[in-house]
Amino acid sequence: MITGKDLLDLGLKPGKWFKEALEHINAHDLTGDALHAYLDTVKPAPVIPLLDAPVHFYENIRADTAVEQANIDYVRQSMQQLMRTPTVVAGAIMPDACPAGPLGTIPVGGVVATRNAIHPGMHSADICCSVMLSNLGKTDPKTVLDVAQAITHFGPGGRDPEKQFALPAEILAEMQANPFLNSERSLKMAREHLGTQGDGNHFLYVGVSKATGDTMLVTHHGSRGVGAVLYGHGMKVAEFFRREISPATAPDNAWIPSETPEGVNYWDALQTVRKWTKRNHEVLHEAIAAKLAATVQQRYWNEHNFVFRDGDVFYHAKGATPLAAKFMPDITGPRIIPLNMAQPILIVEGDTTTNNLGFAPHGAGRNLSRTRHKYSKIGQTNEAIFEAETQGIDARFYFNRIDISELPSAYKNAEDVKQQITDFNLATVIDEIHPYGCIMAGDWEQDAPWRKKKLAKAAAALAAQGGVDTQEDTSALTVE
Ligand SMILES: Nc1nc2c(ncn2[C@@H]2O[C@H](COP(=O)(O)O)[C@@H](O)[C@H]2O)c(=O)[nH]1
Ligand SMILES: [Mn+2]
């Protein structure tokens, strides 16, 4: 009779599988070659260690100030840890790179390519955060912003039933067919959150093309509750695999093997969430154009938090703009890079170069976290800061509460970022959309009773940490 000790003597990793295997072995009197052949089919895969050294990654960023240098130092250290994850084959950071969590977490402005592995923690929690542009011809920009303000929805939760947009049958069917998406909660959010922008740095921007003088509507938001719930499930499944196959890998870098049933379903779920998010932009653009009776002359979009596939290699972009045609199945125009509310939005095109892995930056990025930025303004009123930073533009907050952490000074210098796009040969700027004005959620939680407690806690954490803290904007991810 074969016992657990015999299996241990063979060097096998103990686990729940022992019980079933021993029953089978003893029921069939397996020994010798037959025993080994059977064990090969049931024993757990060997544990995969971290790589001995980090895989090389391209640094497409330079610092002009001490704060920027501290930012880069942290991002570099983080990437060096991350690039030892056993699935990783290539990586790059962009000029907008900034920390997004503990050391070893992919930064905002990061691209990490892995083989046969989807890492939910590397595509960001706001799956498919994206930008869409509609060219509304010579429509008056102020009229566009006024109409848009009456139609769009910012803040937590979804639309009231009488204001909801129809969820396309194709998306509903895909959600119902996917175990990651087929829950009452997700389906409810898919209906209610359609046509909503959330909060944080999500925006609706109206500007004028430098090249043509046409008025452009640009929206920035992601997959709302639908994506947030998928992300939560994805991280749990990845953690299950991590414990089994690579416990040395950091939990934030856990992966779902792409060829397992879970991997196939997760990949499909990402594509469905992408379709939902695209529709989330489209319903707003269509409703605004219809109300204006404007003919849409061109519409294009791109996601900047997503996973892109090239054969068995998965490119994780956490705040990076895909340029290479192979990454986007539905290209209808160039790519869109916002910088801040008072600066032009860049319209770019490009392809894969040696150092960009097929991506460009997705924005300007932050030098300071939202909390640190607020501290840097202590002594000035919100109104004075707003007045100074929004001169010449029609900047509106949906909830009429100024959010200073979304004003231009919260972001890196737009000119520097633009210069680095050229200097690192990342993309070519083909047009600029000059700002007329914008709508953002604003600080809708300003008067919440728990707000002071939260700020005090964040301040204590910052003081204890003494270093650079996360600059990822996850404020748009509240799942109600
Ligand atoms: N044109 C505007 N750009 C903005 C605004 N707020 C932020 N930004 C830029 O967008 C990127 C994208 O941020 P992420 O949430 O996707 O990481 C950010 O880096 C900023 O440069 C705005 O109000 N208007
Ligand atoms: Mn975004």
Can you summarize this structure?
This protein is an alpha+beta fold and 480 residues long.
Integer-rounded radius of gyration: 24 Å
Low-confidence runs (pLDDT<50, min 5 residues)? none
Report the order of strands and helices.
Answer: HHHEHEEEEHHHEEHEHEEEEEEEHHEHEH
- The CATH architecture category of the largest domain equals Alpha-Beta Complex
Kindly, what is the distance between the CA atoms of the first and last residues, rounded to a whole number of angstroms? Answer: 56 Å
CATH fold-level topology of the largest domain: tRNA-splicing ligase RtcB
Bound molecules: the ligand Nc1nc2c(ncn2[C@@H]2O[C@H](COP(=O)(O)O)[C@@H](O)[C@H]2O)c(=O)[nH]1, manganese (II) ion
How would you sum up the major sheet? 8 strands, mixed
What's the domain count? 3
Give the integer mean of the pLDDT values: 94
The outline comes out as globular
CATH superfamily of the largest domain: tRNA-splicing ligase RtcB
Strand composition percent? 15-25%
Task: Give the total of beta strands.
Answer: 17
Write a structural description.
Keywords: GTP-binding, Ligase, Manganese, Metal-binding, Nucleotide-binding, RNA repair. Strand 16, helix 12 (414-423) and strand 17 (428-440) form a beta-alpha-beta unit. The model has no long low-confidence stretch (mean pLDDT 94). The chain has 3 domains: 4-42, no CATH class; 122-446, tRNA-splicing ligase RtcB (Alpha-Beta Complex), CATH 3.90.1860.10; 448-480. With 480 residues, it is an alpha+beta fold. Helix 5 crosses helix 9 and helix 7 packs antiparallel against helix 8 (224-245). The chain has helices at residues 4-9, 17-27, 32-42, 66-82, 141-151, 169-176, 184-192, 224-245, 261-292, 370-376, 382-389, 414-423, 451-465; strands spanning 57-59, 88-98, 108-115, 117-118, 130-135, 203-209, 215-221, 256-257, 298-303, 305-310, 313-318, 320-322, 335-337, 345-349, 359-361, 394-397, 428-440. The structure holds ligand LQESDW3C and manganese (II) ion. Residues 129, 220, 304 line the site of manganese (II) ion.
